[in-house]
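ugh ok fine here u go
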Amino acid sequence: MFREAEAGQRGELLWLREAKRHFVVLGSSRPAHADVDLGVCQATDIPVVRRFSGGGTVLQGPGSLCFTLLLKHDLRPEVASGVQSADRYVLSRMMAVLAPLIGAVEMAGVCDLTANGKKFAGNAQRRGRVFTLYHGSILNGLDLDLMSSVLRLPDRRPEYRGARAHHEFVRNLELPRSRLEQLIRRAWSASLEADPPGPEAVRRLVTERYGRAEWTYRF
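structure:
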């Protein structure tokens, strides 16, 4: 989707989805062996993949609602200004629609969303010449015990986390999924469903890079 947008084949969009099975996603420069208990993943048949954006390593699956935004720089100067400005611009909109339901929502660390000191959403971005792809995941029923078993305590942690283990540091929102999706769409005035990337393009990217061990385990 990002490549298509940069090539002039897509406009701005919001894409929402939730995986049906669990898998681990490494940030583009995170070390697999340091962040993940690979033995547990192998024993429980949990795949490990690496995305092309920054940020930390996360567990995805049922109960983790993912969103992707494609934001065009010439339409959104706040996004064009830089990484921190884009974080503030995107997350302030998300906070505004979530706060009435879950109370005080804060932006903490680099680009986390928290409630009562616990993280419920992590985000990352990939910047291009014309567009920024901004994406994140919102915990809304994810198996936190499984998260604690497959993810190690990362060596780089935001100050507000301290040494808290995963199950002590994160929380689920426990909102009806349809309501959560409605709120996110409202934040971005998105009334139409986004067209997902074509299956042939996805297969090609998986075959050429993102499904290859030398990409996933390069660190």
